[in-house]
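Re: duplicated header lines in exported structure tokens

Our pipeline writes sequence and tokens for each protein into one text file. With two proteins the header for the second block appears twice in some exports. Here is an export where it did not happen, for reference. First protein block:
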Amino acid sequence: MAGHGIPDDYLDGYADILAAASRTGRRLTREELESRRALGERAADAGHGLRALVGAHLAATRDHWPHGRPDAADSVLAAAEQAVDALAEGYERAQRLAVRQEEAARREFIDDLLYGRSDLGLLAERAERFGLRLSYEHAVAVAQDRHGYEEGHAVPREVERALIGRFGDRSILLTTKDGRLVCVAPGDQAEVLTFFAKQAYAATDDCRVAIGRPRPGPGGVVQSYEEALGALDLAERLELDAPVLRAADLLVYPVLTRDRQAMAELVLHTLGPLREARGGAGPLLDTLTAYFDSGCVAAETARALALSVRALTYRLERIHKLTGANPADPVHRYTLQTAVIGARLLDWPDTQF
């Protein structure tokens, strides 16, 4: 065993290199440099530290120092410098390859985890390597902004540092997918995803975060992820202003759209007559949207639409006349509001059906 805990075979040929440099003053040959690089790669693959490897070679250099020959000292020192540089190059090359392989394995695992494309049993085994125990419940939060996120960029790194600083190692997985920032956390630790949402929102100017419900088992991550994506899609179509959306609070919308044909019929039957208005259905549909969003408060609706209360009242009366449904009547209000939600979800009247 060589010094610094490095096996002797990692010094193979080094004494001969130093001896040749001492005799002739020559530099290392291409073959000798490549042999040092190969030894550096082997050491990295075997888990030996670079400091220990360099230390062992420096110790060997001292053991083979040409005492009493000042003219050879510079040559030996130059050879040692070349050898150590080649060792470090090979060591770093192996480390870079290992990092790339680890990144590829992590990306493949994340794709399989979020899309459910792998055998669930094998997926659960692979998950433990990345700190997840898929037999438990997990929930997923997804952050999205107009610029998008890429792995290794400033925002993901900033959010990851904040999460680690706050929670340490709590089986949290942070990654990017399709330009979004994704956080997977244990389902019983809601504070993790809440903190993630705050950090993601604070790190960008235009960010929205959706949080899926906790789901059990290896397939639970996929379900929670899809719920979060669905919440983001709903927020865009419904023009929701909330920066943080929880899928549990939006369950009514998937129910409303589960039967698309029935919803389309409700929209056309209830709101179709608005197309007869001057300017089409758009302005009156916007009026209903603002009216319901304000809690049916006329003054607040008028302010939101930059109208006078009198002008708003005229529009509501016009809607009543065209549709036969009075927005101010609780009996009619539910049907109208449901139809308005359906119109926003189905992009009516821009989309015809």
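Second protein block, exported in the same file:
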Amino acid sequence: MQVRPARPDDLPALYDICLRTGDAGADASALYADPRILGEIFAAPYAELELALALVAEDEAGACGYILGTADTRAFEARCEAEWWPALRARYADTADVPARRRTPDQWAAFLIHHPPIAPQAAVAAAPAHLHIDLLPRAQGQGLGRALMDRWLGMVGGCAHLGCSPRNVRALGFYDRYGFRRLEGAASPEVVYMAIG
């Protein structure tokens, strides 16, 4: 296995990995009618707008994981608002009129495209950079997560924050062991925010 810089032709694999880890680390393929919609939010904008900070883990079968992110969360949020979300909003209808408890996973994703989550100030104050890291099951437990994290953090000066589903116990354990600390001031029922550096 190797870690390498992402390339533009990795984009289909990034969409696939995002979907196959999109249910709190488990495969979300059965949850979404549109197999690209999660990747449109959590993977593709980084590959398109911050390719220099995108790394891919690869084995003999191809891409099996990634780490994506930005060195400046607020600037990235503004750039997505100007350059990424408008085209997607033209393709996906806003589902704000659907009661939250009745939205399907696809409708929730469409809602996020129109109302993208903004990082809590407590997380940005702890570390302005943020990241997303996902590994397919075949790549887990072999040190690839640590290799990706070491290399990516080295690219952004060693400080970053991230958000993780509280249901993703395996990932939370990895972040704890790696040295991330939980940010109580940024806690929510849906996301555990953590920072390092």
